[in-house]
Amino acid sequence: MNLSLGFSSCPNDTYIFDAMVHGKIDTEGLSFTVHMHDVEELNQMAFRNELDITKLSYHAFAYLTDEYQLLDAGSALGFGVGPLLVVKKDSPALHKYKSEWKVAIPGKFTTANFLLSIAYPEIKNKTELLFSEIEQGVLNGSFDAGLLIHENRFTYEQRGLAKVADLGAFWEKFANAAIPLGGIVVKRNLKDDVKQTINRVLRRSVEYAFANPKASYEYVKKHAQEMDEEVMYKHINLYVNQFSVDLGEEGKRAVKTLFNMAQEKQIIEQVREDIFL
User: Fold this and answer.
1) Which of the listed CATH numbers 3.40.50.720, 3.80.10.10, 1.10.260.40, 3.40.190.10 matches domain 84-175?
2) Catalytic annotation, residues
3) Rounded distance, CA 165 to CA 258, Å?
C-alpha cells in the first residue's frame, strides 16, 4: 500500500523518516511517496486534505481534528525548544510599545505564532515569511522583530540579533508542561489497522535513528543545504527525543493543555476529544 507522506527538509524530520522512506526497517508492506516542504506549506496541504500522513504544527492540527488523528510516534515536543522573539541589537524597536512592532512570523498556523499570540496579544502587525528568511528581514530593517524557529535558534546572535523572549520558556513556566511544536498525523478515514501499522513503522524508524545516528547522515545533509554539521546535529538533538518515540501520558497532557489554552483564549474553536490514535 502506497501512502502520501509530508515532512520538512529540517534535520529533525529527515533524521527520523530516513529509515522509513529508504526501506532500512520493516515497513510491513507500506511504501511512501514523499512530499518535502516547509512546515507552513505542509500545514496548508493538510487544510486541503492532500496528504495521508504529514508533519503538522500543533496549532494547525487544532483546526484539523475532524480530518486527522495524531500518531504516538514522531512528535517534536520538549523543554527549551521553543521559538525565540528577536530584534536587531540596539534596535529602536526596544523603545517602542510592542503593539507598534511589525513582526515577521514563520506562518499563521505555526505553533510559534500561537505562542506569540498568548505571550504578546498586543502584537497584531504580523507578516508571514519563510522561516529561513526571517533573520535577514529583521537585520535589513524590514521588520522590528522576528519569530525564529529551527536552526536559526543557533545562529541569530552571531548575525547581530538579540533575544527579546524565549516563548518556549514562557510556555513551560505558564503551563508547567513540555511545549508541543509539531506532530505526525494520519487521515481519519484510513482503516484503523493501517493507522496502527503506520504508527509502528514510524516508531521503528525513530528507534533505528537513535540506534544508528550516522545512518541518515547523507540524507539529512543533502536537505540541510549549507547548514554547518555541528548546527545540524544540535538541531536534531534539540527536537528529537523520547517524545519522538512515544508521546506517552506526559506528551499527551502537554498537547491537551495547549489545545485547552487555545480554546479558553478563543484562538481556536472546539477540538475533538479523540485526537490521539
Assistant:
1) 3.40.190.10
2) 150
3) 19
